[in-house]
Amino acid sequence: MGNKAYKKKDAQLEEYFKVIQEKQVNHLRQSGYFHNSGEWIATMREDLLGSHGRWRTELVDFLDNWDVERDINVKASLVMLDYLDNQDSSPKKSTRCYLKSINTYTTFQDELDENEYKKLIHTQLCDFKQENVLNQIIKLFQRSILEEFTYVTNTQRELKQAVLEEPTQYANILNEDLFDFLEIFTKAVKSFYLGFKNFITEKGAIEKIVRDAVIRDELFSVVIEFNSIIFNHDEEKYLQNLHELSQETPIDSSHFALDNGAGYLNSFSALLEVTSAKSYCQVLDCLINTSYYVTKALDDYYPNANIVLETDVILQIFQLLILRSCVPKFPILLKTIENLLDDSNQIGMLGFLLTTWIGSVEALKQ
Known about the structure:
By secondary structure, this protein is mainly α. Helices cover 67% and strands 6% of the residues. The chain contains 17 helices and five strands. It has helices at 2-30, 37-49, 55-64, 72-80, 108-114, 116-126, 133-149, 161-165, 167-192, 205-214, 217-230, 232-246, 261-272, 280-301, 311-325, 330-340, 348-365, and strands spanning 93-99, 102-105, 150-153, 156-159, 308-309. The strands form two sheets. A three-stranded mixed beta sheet has the order 2-1-5. Strand 1 (93-99) and strand 2 (102-105) form a beta hairpin. Helix 6 (116-126) runs parallel beside helix 10, helix 9 packs across helix 10 and helix 13 crosses helix 15 (311-325). The chain starts with a helix and ends with a helix.
């Protein structure tokens, strides 16, 4: 008797959720949210056929065989957030002291935490365990690139011998593949999430999410490895100068409150985290956090003043942190991020901070 009652209850619950799901799908259809299901695939297919990468054939075949009905839950999850208040909150980290005109520091992770729409899209693009058409496209592209340029030996991934013999030539091919795919895929994401502009308004937000989802983990490591080979001379010069300067005390930082206390330790620790970064935006977040802790230290040192730091002073502080942290491949990381930064994010906070960090490294190499 008991088992029959439970089975009946389970069947009733299953039927209930089936009805609810059908109502949700009907609501989405009536609102026009699925009207573009075939359109975005057709557009992306056309864009792929116009590209030259070896990966395009596999992606076209994948799209030709994809059932758009499988996208229902992915799109439904985003639309359901309309019932919540998900407006961007005020920046979490702000300072009285300025690096030029910047006194607010919002990392990519802050953006995801503050905006549920961004967080959901980023999760749907990155979480391969929850399969959807978009993250499977990313997975196929990453696999194609890795197979073209690398091979696996034991547990390590190495660049192929042909790549090592002509690294610049193959790096150009890799960059062309990356930027072609990023352009095509970003356009597809904007079309897939119809109406995303209603909840993600700032310029460059989708571009940043896409870049972080695509350029991560093994693919990110391969891009870094390419640049390590091409710019090996810069890296050697950087390390040599760090060693020589470490024997001296070229920068007086005492009046910046960076020689001791939480300000210096937090700045130092934040910069060291770049060594464990696994994606494009994780590197950017380390630079942003380090810059924030620098100005936060100044806030603590000058409690009743608003200080606007000139560029030469900022360079000195950043050089001190670089010198004492001795981050390996730091010039390579900066060159990589500079190359990958999209046009819409090259101005404002990201562009200024990245340019300043690059300037600090260049000064140390002289």
